Fold each of these.
Amino acid sequence: MMIELSITGTNAITFPHLEVWDWRIVFYLFLGGLSAGILVMCSIANLRIPKQPVEELAQCVRAPLIAFIVLAVGALFIILDLGSPLHLVWGYLTFQPLSLMSWGTWGVPAVLFANALYILAVIPKEQRHRLKLPLLIKLSEKLALRMRPIAKLNFALGIFLGIYTGVLLSSFAAIPLWNNATLPILFLVSALSSGAAMVVIIAKKAEIKFLFTKIDIWLIVAELVVIALFFYGLYTSTAPYKKAIAPFFSLTSEHFIFTLALIAIFLLLPLALRIKLGELKEFEDGLHAEFTKAQIFRMNFAAILVIAGTLILRAAIVYAGQLTKLSAY
Amino acid sequence: MPKYVMVIDVERCIGCMACVIACKKENGVADGYFRTRVVEEVRGEFPNLRMELRSELCNHCENAPCIDACPTRASHRAKDGTVQIDKKKCIGCKACILACPYDARYSTPEGVADKCTFCEHRLKEGRKPACVETCLGKSRIFGDLDDPNSEVSQLLKKHEATVRLEFAGTSPRVFYINKKFAGGL
C-alpha cells in the first residue's frame, strides 16, 4: 500500500528528523558515565584491602579528582544545552520525583559534593600541604579517618550516576529506541567498563592496571551481552520498536553512520577484550614479575578502545533514538 | 472545572490552512514555528487512493508525559484542565519536547518550550480558540465535554471518535471523527 505524507505548518525541530538533543547531550552522557565508572572503580580499589593506612590504600588518589573534573565538564555541557540556563534556579526550588531531569538537577551536584569529600579523604599526608588553605588541610585530616565510609558513599553514588543516564533516556516513552528497560543496564555496564579503562590508563602501579584490566574483561563481556539483548528486545517488540533499530542495520547513506557505530561497538570492544585477554594469559604464564613496556602499552591501548566505544555507543543511541517515533511518520 | 476538548471532523477540512495562520497571528508565534499543522495523508493502491487532511496540535493529554518530564513544573496542568507552559520557569532542557509522542512541542528562538495553549487567554474571556473561530469548513469544534448539551458532547455521542496513538496511553483531549479513512492518525 502506498502512503504519501505532506505536512503544512511543521516545526523544523520536530520533523523530518527530531534532533532535539545534540552532541552536547552525547558528551554529558559520556562524561557522566565515565565519571560514575571511575568513582565506582576507585572506591573498589580503596575498599578492597582492609584496615590499612590511607597512604597504602590510595593507589587511586588521582582517580576521584579526575572523576570530579570529568563530571564537572559533563555538567557544563548540559548547561550549554539549556535554552534558558538562567531559569535553572527553578530547578532547585522544587523536586519533581517523576522527572528524571529533576533527579539529575539534584543528583549531579550531590555526586560532585560527595566526590569532593572523597578527594580530600584520599590525599596522602605528605601531599596535604598542596591544599594551601589551613581549613582544607584540617578537613582533609578529619575526612581521611572516614575514608572507607566516604568511599562506600561514592560507590553507591557512582552506581546511581551510571544508571541514571540510561534511565533518563529510557523514560521517554515517545522514543521507541530509548524506551527500553535494557538501556539503563547497558549504560551502567558501559559506564563501569569505561571507568575501569580510565583507571587502567591513570594508575601508576602496573599491579593496579592489571587488576582493572581483569575487571574490565568481565565488564566488556557483560556489555556485549547486554548490547545483543538490547537489539533483540527491540526486534521482538511491536512495529515502532522494531523499526527503531532499522537504522543500525541499514547501509543507506543517511543511516550509514549508525552502521559504522554498530561495527565499531562490535569491533572496538571485542578488540579491547582480546588485547586484555592476551595480557592476562601472559601474566598467568609467570611473566608478571616485571611488566614490560609493551605489556603496559597494550593494557593502555585496550583501555582507550573501551573509552572510544563508550562514546560511540552513546552518540549512536542518542542520534538514532531521535530518528524513531511512535507515530507512522 | 470544565473539560475542554477539541473535536476534529476530518471530512470537513478543506486544507485551507487558515487555522495554521490564525494560530500564528493570535499567539505571536515566531517565524518558522507553528503550534498547529495540517497533515495530508494519501493512502491506498492506485487508483483506489484516499486523502485525509488531518489537523494536529497539542492533545492536552489527561496523562501528559510532558508534565512528568518537566524538572521545574514549567509544564503543568492549569486550573481549567489544559496543559500549559510557564515560560518563566522553563529552563529549555527540551525533555518535554522529547516526551511528547505527538511532536506537538518545539523550542522557541528564546530557548524555551512552546506549544498550543487552546488559546488559554481567549478561554478566559469565554471565546473559542482562534483556529476554531477561523475554520471555514467547521472542521474544528471546541467545547466542554462535561456539559452534556455542548456541541462536542453531542458530536462524540453521535460519532465514534478516535484519538492519535491511543496505545501510548496518554488519553488525549483532541478527538478525530473520520468514518472513511481507517488507519490514519
Amino acid sequence: MHHRYDVLVVGAGGAGLMAALYAAKGNVSVACISKLYPTRSHTGAAQGGIGAALGNVQEDHWEWHMFDTVKGGDYLTDQDAAEVFAKDIIDAVYELEHMGLPFSRTPEGKIAQRKFGGHTRDFGKAAVERSCYAKDRTGHMILQTLYQQNVKAGTTFFNEFHVTDLLIEDGRCQGLVAYELSTGELHTFHAKAVILAAGGYGRVFKITSNALTLTGDLMSIYYRKGLPLEDMEFYQFHPTGLAKLGILVTEGIRGEGGILRNDSGERFMERYAPTIKDLAPRDIVSRSIITEIREGRGVGRDKDAVNIDLTHLPREVIEGKLAEITDLARTYLGMDPVKDLVPIQPTAHYAMGGIPTNLDGLCLSDGSGGTVEGLYAAGEQACVSLHGANRLGTNSLGDLVVFGRRAGIAAAKYARQVEYPDMPEGAQRESVDLFERLRNGSGKENAAAIRKDLQESMMNNVGIFRNGKDMAAQVEILKELKARYQGVTVSDPSRRYNSELIEAMELGFMLDCAEAMTASALNRTESRGAHDREDFTERNDTDWLKHTMAYKNLNKADDVIIGYKPVALKGFTRAFEPKPRVY
Amino acid sequence: MTQTTAQASSAPVSASVPMLQLKVKVLRFDPEKDKKAYWTTYDVEAQPGDRVLDVINHIKWYLEPSLTFRRSCMHGICGSDAMLINGRNRLACKTLVRDVAKSGGTITVEPIRGLKVEKDLLVDMEPFFDSYKAIMPYFINESPAPAAERIQSEEEAERMAHSSNCILCACCTTSCPIFWVNGSYLGPAAIVQAHRFIFDTRDEATQQRLGIMNQNTGVWRCRTAYNCTEACPRDIPITQLIEEVKRAVMYGQA
C-alpha cells in the first residue's frame, strides 16, 4: 500500500508526539508511525522530572542550568545546544502546563520543583531545586498529555507499524517503508519530510531500564546507509536500578533525601563528591557504586549491589512523592522502602549518542556540515549533543519537548517550501530482501540465544568501566554474533502479527548499534563522562575534545570508519571553559 | 501438547531459592488456521520472583516462537501486556510467579475478554481506544494562557492523582461484565479519563463531558460490580471515581 504525507513522524514517545503536534500547527499533513500503541512508548517510564529554571522554589537562572548541562556533559556538550535548551525549556514547561499536565504544586499553587543530581546554583556552589515533577511519574504524564493533545489535533496514527527502511537518494529523504504487524503487509510512505524519534537502544545490554522494544531500529537503518552515528561510546548507566532487574528507581529518590550506603552502612558518596554527595551526576555516582562493589563493600548474596536508604524520610513523602518506586520495590523485591533498605545497582539507561543533527533537528551526513535534506531527528535517537559525554538527570524529558518542537517546526516549514521528491524505483526492495533472508535462512541459530550473548558480552566488555583489551575482544565477539545471525530463520510462516519475524529483525538492528558503539569506544583513548577507561584514566582535552562520527564501511564487512566533528565550545551569549569536574 | 524446558529466570533471587516446576497453560488461537481456540501446556522451570512475563517470553524465545502477545516496558508502566492470568485480569510484567503458583502448579494465561482476539493473547485494541477518544480526552481551556503556569492548589491537583495514574492497559474495562454484554458501554477506563478532566479546576469543558457521561453509553451503565477496581494494576479506586462522576452528572457540576 502507498501513502503520502507532507511530514511523517516515526515514534510516538515524547519527542515524536511533540514533533507531530508542532508539524500539524505548521499547516501540513502529518502522520505518526509507531511500532507500539500510543501511550506505550518508553517516555512513560521516566519518573523524576523535567528540569527548568522556573525559580518557583529557589532562585534559579537559565545560565546555571546551561552550566550544569555543559559541566555534567564533561564539556563535550555543544554549548549552542545547551544555551538554546536552557532558555527554551522554561517556556516548554509552561506550555506543558497549559496543555493540562497535572504537575505537583507548591503551597502557592505553582509548579513544584525538587533537587536532582547535578543541578546547582551559582555555577556549582550548592544544590538547587530545579526539577519540575508530577509525583514520580513525570514521563507518564508528559506522554499522556502529548498524546491527548494529538487526539485533539486529529493527528493520523499508524499503530504497530515497524519501519524497515528509510528512502534516501541523492542526499534527500523521500519517505520510508514500514511493515504493518496486523496484516504482514509492507507499506510505502512518500513524504516531503521525515522526523525520526524512535528512542534508544538500551536492549543491547543485559541489565537495563529500557523496554524490550528499545532496539535502535532507526539508528541502525541510518547507519546501514553509510551515514554516521555520533558519540556512540557515551552510554549512560543510571546509578539506581533495582538490583538484578535494572528497573529504574528515580533520581528523585536522592533528590528527596535518599542516601546510598555500602555493606557497613557508610554514606560512601561523602568520599567521592564531598560537596553534593548523593546528588552528584549519574556517571560519578554509577562509578562510585561499582568501585564500592569491586572493593568488596557491596550488599546482597553476590555483594554486587549497594543500598538506598529512605527510612529516615516521612512515610507521606515515600508513599506520596515516591509512590511509583515504592510500588516497584514492594512488587519486585518484596521490600518496603518505609522500613527496608532497597538494594540497587547501575542499569544501562540512556544513549547520549545517536543520529547527528543540527539545532533544528536536521540530520547530518558527515562531520563538516553536510545534511540529509528532508530528514530530521529528535529525542534519545538523535544527537544534537545537548548531553555531551553524560546526560544531566531530567534533561531527557527536556530534550524531547525542546528539540521535538524545533524539529516539528523546521520539518513543517521545509515541507511547505518544497515539492514531493521523486520515489525511487523498487522502494520496497531492501525491505523485501531483509524479510526473505529472515524467512529463508539456514535455520540453525536461535535469535534469543544470540541476543542473550550480545547483551551479556556488551555488559561485560563495554559497560561502566572499559579497557582496550576487553573492547577489542568485543569487536571479535560481535563479528561472530553477526555471522551466527546470518543463520537465524523465522519458523512462524504466518503473515498476521508475526512477532517472531519482528524480533529477529530487531536483533539485526541491535547488532549494528553495538558495532558502532564498540568501535567508537575502543577508538577514544581517554576517560570522559560516561566513557571511563581503565587504560586511559584521564580526560584528554588536547586530543579528544571532539565528537566521534562512526560510519559503517559499506565496502568491507564488520569495518567501522571513524571520523570527527568539532565541539561547539561557545553558546550564543555564554561560554564555559572546560575545567576539571569536581563536585 | 507438552514441551519441556530449562529455566526462564531473570529474578534477583539467589541460587539457594528452590526453582518452581510449573505447567503454563496458554489459550492459543490463530484465525488463519484455527476454527476455535485451544489450550497448550508448556513445562517451565522458574524462580519464585520471576514475572509471569518472563515465563511467557521464555516460552516464545525457546519453545514456541509463534506465540504472540504484546509487551514492552517489563515493569507495569506501558500497559501492553494485560492478560487473564489464573482467571484474573493482570499485567504479566507486574505479576510474580510466586503469587500465582506453587511448585508443581499450573498458571493459565488467556487473552483479556470483550475485545476480538487477533492471535493468541493479542486482542484488537481499537474499540477500547475509540471509547477513550469519545470522552474528549484532552485539556480544554480557550481563555488566553498566562505567561507562566495557571495556579492550582495542592488539594486541587491531588483531585487528579488517581485518575491521571491510568496507563490505559484495559484491565478494568475488559473485566467489566457490562462491557462484555454491551460493547457500546464506554467502560471504566474511559470514565476514569473523563474524571481526570472533569475534576481538573483548570479545564473548561466540564459540562460537555458530563453530557457524554449522561448518555446511555455512559456512566449509568455501571452496576457497581467492583471488577474494575480489583483488576486495576495501579490500585486506582475506579468504582469510587465512577461514583464521583455519577454524582457530578446528577448535580450538574464537578
